[in-house]
Amino acid sequence: MADMTQSTTSSGPRSADAGPITRFLRATEIDTRLLGMIGALLIIWIGFDLYLRIFDGREFLTARNLWNLSVQTCEIAVLATGMVLVIVTRNIDLSVGSVLGFVAMIMGVMQAKWLPQYLGFDSSWTWIITLICGLVIGTAIGAFQGGIIAFMNVPSFIVTLGGLLVWRGLAWYVTSGQTVAPMDSTFVIMGGSGATGSIGATWSWVVGVLACVMIVASIVGSRRQRKRFGFPRRPLWAEYFLGCLGSVWCSAPSISSTAITGPLASPSATPRNTILPGRKRASTFPTASPFRFSSPCSSASS
After folding, report:
1. How far is CA 235 from the centre of its chain?
2. DSSP single-letter state for residue 112
3. How many CB atoms are located within 10 Å of the residue 81 CB?
4. DSSP character for 288?
5. Do 295 and 105 contact (CB within 8 A), yes or no?
6. Residue 187 — pLDDT band, cuts 50, 70, 90?
């Protein structure tokens, strides 16, 4: 029984002298730096919401608005994840935005102009071929620039600065500066554009439940590994707390999707004082956000 409740907190006078908040953070092993970033984000959100409620009679913290913000920032999150690997190797990539734009334009033109000539528009193969080509082109560009940096010893700053100009110019050349539309319907759903850009409330809950199961399995597996190698383990109450916290965090998108695909999905039911990207007081759901550029499905159609 004592083996099951072994804690990572320090023993002796140090634990006794620590405050309840410090003991809680030690037991749960929560990163305080992460808490600081989340707290700053909450302050910004609440500040925006209070300001708009007081001075403009509108709302910011709504399910639809947070869902739109999540969709609009997903590509930035993916880029930032890869950029971490570049920065930890003491390099820099100035061309990441231009590469994203070039690949997005290639994928847009491919599904709007090139593939329909052979497969027809809205073919079931269009989105698959487009995704594969986008991944191949992006990987080839990264390998090309990485090869120059690694094997020719050219500084990453110089290589990626040149790539910034080259890929940005090629993105314009592919489209000749023209709007590329319409996009494949399946691909538009994947990009989260407009009211159709969601997997729906049912599948959102399915994904949320699977994510919760994975979180619980990860906690259980981590505890078993710690026991196997003799590492100190968190108290059981800390494990339960982290499992509940992760489950609530993963359920938030499902709740937002349910709110969006429910009453708010119909244009007539949209609250008049709800902020929607690109509109001050909207009564209909926008088909696409004007703030989004780099998502492949909407990069050329917005």
Report:
1. 32
2. I
3. 9
4. S
5. no
6. confident
- CA 22 to chain CA mean position, Å: 31
Q: What is the pLDDT averaged over residues 218-245?
A: 92
Tell me the per-residue pLDDT of 255-297, one tens digit each, with 9 for 90 and over. Answer: 766 766 554 444 444 444 444 444 444 333 333 333 333 334 3
**Residue 219 lies inside a defined structural domain of this protein:** no
Dihedral pair phi/psi, residue 284, rounded to 5°: -135, 160
Does the residue 170 lie in any domain?
Answer: yes
Q: Would you give the distance in Å from CA 198 to the centre of its chain?
A: 14
Packing angle of the helix pair 200-229, 236-261 (nearest 10 deg): 170
Q: Which amino acid is at 10?
A: S
pTM for the full model? Answer: 0.67
Q: Are 173 and 107 in contact (CB under 8 A)?
A: no
Parent domain of 135: 74-194
Q: Which of 1-5, 128-132, 194-198, 220-224 has the lowest mean pLDDT?
A: 1-5
Number of domains in the chain: 1
Instruction: Classify 136 as helix, strand or coil.
Output: helix
Residue 201, in any domain of the structure: no
State the chain's mean pLDDT as an integer. 79
Please give the Cα distance from 65 to 264 (Å, whole number).
11
pLDDT bucket at 198, cuts 50 / 70 / 90: low
Which DSSP string corresponds to 42-111?
A: HHHHHHHHHHHHHHTS-BSS-HHHHHHHHHHHHHHHHHHHHHHHHHHTT---S-HHHHHHHHHHHHHHII
Please give the average per-residue pLDDT across 28-54, as a whole number. Answer: 91
For 261-269, which contacts have Cβ atoms below 8 Å and span 24 or more sequence positions?
261/198, 261/200, 261/201, 262/201, 264/63, 264/64, 265/195
User: What is d(CA 267, CA 262) in angstroms, rounded to the nearest whole number?
Assistant: 11
Q: Does a structural domain hold residue 144?
A: yes
